């Protein structure tokens, strides 16, 4: 059985979000989807398309292969029909400027003749004006998709068992949820490891290449997004703790790894920067960490920050905010060190 066949049987872990989007479409509302990295947004749009593409009152246009251009949008806009036109854009956040400009022009003042369901990066929550300038926000429903609860995680795992024609011990399935916290990408990878006979034990799991790649990107979101956005997409609990156990273990491991190589002063600086979660640390605050009893020395601050920057270069970039202080930014996993 493949996923297309499984769509006929249903993907229960998507059904709540599916109901929300279908309801919005019936009300002629545009939708934005946001979630943490590897939470299955494009699979969800596949599932949505499967459910709505054959409905008599809808004309559905799905940019599955990221091939739509500005001209495509204009043709959809000009098409005359009595049915509701719906455009599904899983790759909107990677589109060329010409496409997004045309999209916004059509959406301005609600002039578009079609509805849209688009996927956006979660940074959209923190700064929507960076994505949609010169117009009202072109959507009425913003859906933040969170990790699954235990029941839906087990539903996903049972579907994976059917697709792989295999079975895993119930206690292992529960262990997968206990580690993944319902994050879809982590759940799928842990399932694969379990079918290969791997033991799902920490810290060994943190060195699995596929898990590590996902965790690095989740940690990047955790370090760069606001706490409110991290709560919306399920990286943080309502109380502010890390919601995904495997991510929590990963962040603790790299923090300990850094701590082993830092001087006591550099460790204090790292703790200060991390407590700000990407916000400004002033030069005066850096000096307070260095030696509050000594007279303020800008040169001493510069030297300490320069040494600190080199010490954390594999994980972070220290950005200078001219005349004010510094911001610690998580290094993109794909970016060169120098």
State the domain count: 3
CATH H level of the largest domain: which superfamily?
P-loop containing nucleotide triphosphate hydrolases
What gap, in angstroms, lies between the N and C termini? Answer: 47 Å
User: What amount of the residues lies in strands?
Assistant: 5-15%
Low-pLDDT segments: none
Structural class: alpha/beta
Count of DSSP strands: 8
Which secondary structure elements does this structure contain, and how are they paired or packed?
Layout: H1 3-9, H2 12-26, E1 31-35, H3 41-52, E2 58-62, H4 70-78, E3 84-89, H5 97-107, E4 114-119, H6 123-126, H7 128-131, E5 141-145, H8 150-164, H9 170-180, H10 184-195, H11 209-224, H12 227-232, H13 245-259, H14 264-276, E6 281-282, H15 283-290, H16 298-311, E7 316-321, E8 325-330
Parallel strand pairs: 1-4, 1-5, 2-3, 3-4
Antiparallel strand pairs: 6-8, 7-8
Helix pairs in contact: 2-3, 4-5, 8-10, 9-10, 10-11, 11-13, 15-16
What does this entry look like structurally?
The chain has 338 residues and is of the alpha/beta class. The chain folds into 3 domains: 3-145, 3-Layer(aba) Sandwich (Rossmann fold), CATH 3.40.50.300; 150-253, no CATH class; 261-330, Winged helix-like DNA-binding domain superfamily/Winged helix DNA-binding domain (Arc Repressor Mutant, subunit A, Orthogonal Bundle), CATH 1.10.10. It contains 16 helices and 8 strands. The protein has helices at residues 3-9, 12-26, 41-52, 70-78, 97-107, 123-126, 128-131, 150-164, 170-180, 184-195, 209-224, 227-232, 245-259, 264-276, 283-290, 298-311, and strands at 31-35, 58-62, 84-89, 114-119, 141-145, 281-282, 316-321, 325-330. The strands form 2 sheets. It has a 5-stranded parallel sheet with strand order 2-3-4-1-5, covered by helices on one side. Strands 6-8-7 form a 3-stranded antiparallel sheet. Helix 4 (70-78) links the parallel strand 2 (58-62) and strand 3. Helix 9 (170-180) packs antiparallel against helix 10.
